[in-house]
Every structure is written in structure tokens, then in C-alpha cells.
Write a structure and sequence with these properties.
With 219 residues, the protein is of the alpha/beta class. The chain has a single domain (2-152, 182-218), classed as Rossmann fold (3-Layer(aba) Sandwich), CATH 3.40.50.720. The protein has helices at residues 11-22, 54-57, 74-77, 80-100, 121-134, 157-171, 183-195, 206-218; strands at 2-6, 28-33, 44-48, 65-68, 105-109, 140-144, 149-150, 181-182, 200-204. The strands form two sheets. Strands 3-2-1-4-5-6-9 form a seven-stranded parallel sheet, sandwiched between helices. α1 packs across α7 (183-195), α4 runs parallel beside α5 (121-134) and α7 (183-195) crosses α8.
């Protein structure tokens, strides 16, 4: 399996990259990044690119599987326009390059409430991205819609409070569909689907991701 990946500096992308490099079925990994990675591996090819200039990097999008783990927050981006550029434009450009270069399998991290008609900007943006990528007609398109993700050593106060509240409800059997998911589990599931991609479009909602992640963890 030859892989191309964006989002390797993010929480889930970091975990996925490590799993890819450790997996004997993976021969090469091309990581398209905006800044250098502090990692070296015989399988790994790091390409520092400008996402705003797809014509300069689209030829690098080659392989059997493309993983899109890119994303940012409104706070980090600074504006809705800047967040849209990262979360929609960059990822769609990556997907277009993958389709043009005949990569059969595309795996995308979306969001649990993705919906093109949502009144919430983030959810609507994610829904629009899903819809646009669906039109590219990959042999296998796998869309992951996780809920709250647990990142190692997160310093975001709001994130930590939300996790604490959800875990409290989960202990008494409530809000099970909103159980926080460790990014390691999501990355592991992405690798599993990348290695055995189902034909057509597969959308994994949060509850299914959690259920299959628990099963994968037990094997």
C-alpha cells in the first residue's frame, strides 16, 4: 500500500502517520505539510508545500490511498474565511488531485454534525466538503464523522470541561452516542479501512466509529 496524507501535524494525523510507518503492508507514505516534521523514516517522504498553490504540488498526490486529516478551529484560524480555506478549499484541492491521479481510495475526517443545510457554519462547511468530494467518484470514499475527539495532553479548557461532562453522563448510561473518542482509536480505524476499503461511499457516524473502534482495540 502506498499512501499520501495531509494533516500529519494534527492530533489524528500524527497518530495515523505513526501507524502507517509501523504497518508492514504500507510501503511508502508521502506527507504533504506546511512545515517540517521532526521525524525520519525510510518509508516517509516529506513534502513541504503551499496549499494555496495546488498546481505546484498536485503531481505529488500519488498512491493507492489518500488520507485527509487536515483541519483547524475558528479560534486558531482567526476568521470563518480562513477556516473555510483550510477545512474546505485545501482538502477539496487535495481530493481533486487524488481523483485526477486515479487514486482509488479516499478517506476523509469530517464532523459528526456535517450537513449542507445546517445553520451552524462548521457543520454546514463539513457537509459541503463531503458533498463536493462525493462528486469526484472515487472507487472507495470513506467518510468519518466523529464526535468529540480526545487529544493527548490537550490544553484547551473548553475541550477538557466538555470531556469531563460527557464522561460523567456516560457513566450513568446517558449520551452514549457522544462518548469522547481518543484520536488513536480514530487513526487505527482509518488504517483498517484504508487497508480493506469497501466499494462505493461509506459514511461512519460517531456511534459506529465508537463501536468499531472498541472492537478493533480488542483484537
Amino acid at each position: 500500500m502506498n499512501v499520501v496524507l495531509i494533516g500529519a501535524t494534527g492530533a489524528t494525523g500524527k497518530e495515523l502517520l505513526q501507524l502507517l510507518l509501523q504497518d508492514p503492508q504500507v510501503e511508502t507514505v508521502v506527507a504533504l505539510v506546511r512545515r517540517p516534521l521532526n521525524i525520519q523514516h525510510k518509508k516517509l517522504q516529506i513534502e513541504i508545500i503551499q496549499f494555496d498553490e495546488p498546481e505546484s504540488w498536485k503531481h505529488l498526490v500519488q498512491g493507492n490511498v489518500a488520507f485527509s486529516c487536515l483541519g483547524t478551529t475558528l479560534k486558531d484560524a482567526g476568521s470563518k474565511e480562513a477556516q473555510f480555506k483550510v477545512d474546505f478549499e485545501y482538502q477539496y484541492a487535495f481530493a481533486k488531485a487524488a481523483s485526477a491521479n486515479n487514486i482509488p481510495t479516499f478517506a476523509l475526517i469530517s464532523a459528526g454534525m456535517a450537513n449542507t443545510k445546517s445553520l451552524i457554519f462548521y457543520s454546514r462547511m463539513k457537509g459541503q466538503l463531503e458533498s463536493a468530494i462525493t462528486e469526484l467518484k472515487f472507487s472507495s470514499l470513506i467518510i468519518f464523522r466523529p464526535g468529540l475527539l480526545l487529544r493527548p495532553n490537550s490544553h484547551r479548557l473548553g475541550e477538557r470541561w466538555t470531556v469531563t461532562i460527557l464522561e460523567t453522563f456516560n457513566k450513568i448510561g446517558l449520551l452514549k452516542k457522544m462518548t469522547p473518542l481518543p484520536v488513536q482509536d480514530l487513526a487505527r480505524l482509518m488504517l483498517i479501512y484504508g487497508k480493506t476499503p469497501p466499494a462505493g461511499i461509506t459514511i461512519l457516524e460517531s456511534s459506529r466509529i465508537i463501536r468499531e473502534s472498541i472492537a478493533a482495540r480488542a483484537t
